[in-house]
Design goal:
3 domains; two-stranded antiparallel ribbon; elongated; 6 strands; 355 residues; Dna Ligase, domain 1; 7% strand; lyase; mainly alpha
Length: 355
């Protein structure tokens, strides 16, 4: 009797071992199978999708087979892992194991938004609207409404979003990206303000941001930022008009068509620094850290004027007579690429300006 039971038990164990071996083989084969793809493709996983449902869908689409065993693998090995929504890049050389590894690690496709130094807020909004991977929630809303939704009611949007490349996954909202850029600008501005030089003519960080935006638009050669900042700071300190073209252009808005005239320089707007003393009321562009740093660390010196050479660089002058000579030498020989930021105006500027 005991001997018979031993044979039965041995048989049961053998059957169990064979069954386990079969299961292991099926799991191994299912995981090792190559994905049936002719080319790379994107698998979009939405909120609420499950591994089981996705595997069944892929089997129906002919991308893989034996989805039962793959679903069993997830239940046995990965039941505690969260399936992150987003896009997963599937390539022909991948196996089912590789694909499940992507799901396990949450390696979703990253898209990017680049905000460029010197852009205005209108350009930032246009860049957001052009991204099909971004959920559009602010289209048609005014700038004031957008700032209110960001929790910054009453704030002007210009210059308040940090130029950088921002990575995101499909489905992020335009407002979420703006919030990230706004918070980044606040952080950078606060860091630079804490390390500012002494005796600057700014009442608060916002005024420094306004100055930085002018420097951003005036600078064609990065190494000149500090020197340009020095000119504008000294003009502020001495009660001189800033007389900078980019502020005039910004104040012209949609009326600007690539050139400014003498009448434009005389036309009163809140941003015309040929007619208004001090800084304009708001920044005129998005500002990088380097321009903020320059505004808060202007280069010491005596220069009060500068004129563009036409290659992006400038000639700096201490006196009006020196500046007039530089204007005659360079300004009257303007080329189409005279200015590195806004296009050139076609008539000579008044001799007594900072440009």
């Amino acid at each position: 009797m005991i001997r018979k039971l031993s044979f039965v038990l041995l048989g049961a164990l053998l059957i169990a071992a064979l069954a386990l071996g079969l299961v292991y083989w099926k799991l191994h084969s299912a995981l090792g199978q190559p994905l049936q793809l002719g080319a790379a493709q994107t698998l979009e996983v939405q909120s609420g999708d499950t591994p089981s449902g996705l595997l069944q869908r892929l089997e129906r689409d002919g991308v893989l087979s034996d989805s039962f065993w793959l679903r069993l693998h997830w239940r046995l090995k990965l039941s505690g892992h969260t399936l992150h929504s987003g896009e997963y890049q599937l390539r022909p050389e991948m196996t089912a194991r590789d694909m499940i590894g992507l799901w396990q690690r949450g390696e979703v496709v990253q898209h990017t938004l680049t905000i460029v130094e010197g852009w205005n807020f209108r350009q930032v909004r246009a860049a957001l609207e052009a991204l099909p991977t971004v959920k559009q929630t602010i289209v048609g809303q005014s700038d004031d409404e957008v700032m209110m939704r960001l929790g910054q009611a009453g704030s002007h949007p210009e210059g308040r979003f940090f130029p950088d490349t921002y990575s995101f996954t499909r489905g992020v909202t335009d407002l979420e990206l703006l919030q990230r850029a706004y918070s980044r600008l606040e952080t950078v501005l606060a860091e630079e303000w804490q390390q500012r030089s002494e005796g600057l003519p700014y009442q608060d960080p916002y005024e420094a941001l306004i100055m930085a935006s002018i420097i951003e638009k005036e600078t064609g050669v990065p190494s000149e930022r500090g020197e340009i900042a020095g000119v504008f700071v000294r003009r502020l300190e001495q009660g001189m008009l800033l007389q900078t073209d980019p502020t005039v252009i910004y104040g012209m808005g949609e009326q600007y068509r690539g050139r400014i005239t003498r009448s434009d320089l005389r036309r009163p707007t809140p941003y015309n620094t040929y007619t208004n003393s001090g800084l304009p009321p708001t920044p005129i562009a998005m500002v990088g850290r380097e321009a903020i740093h320059a505004a808060l660390h202007p280069v010491e010196g005596k220069s009060l004027y500068f004129v563009a050479r036409g290659d992006g660089s400038h000639v700096f002058s201490d006196s009006l007579s020196e500046h007039n000579r530089a204007v005659r030498e360079y300004q009257l020989k303007r080329r189409a690429d005279y200015r590195s930021s806004p296009p050139p105006r076609q008539t000579p500027a008044p001799i007594e300006n900072a440009q």
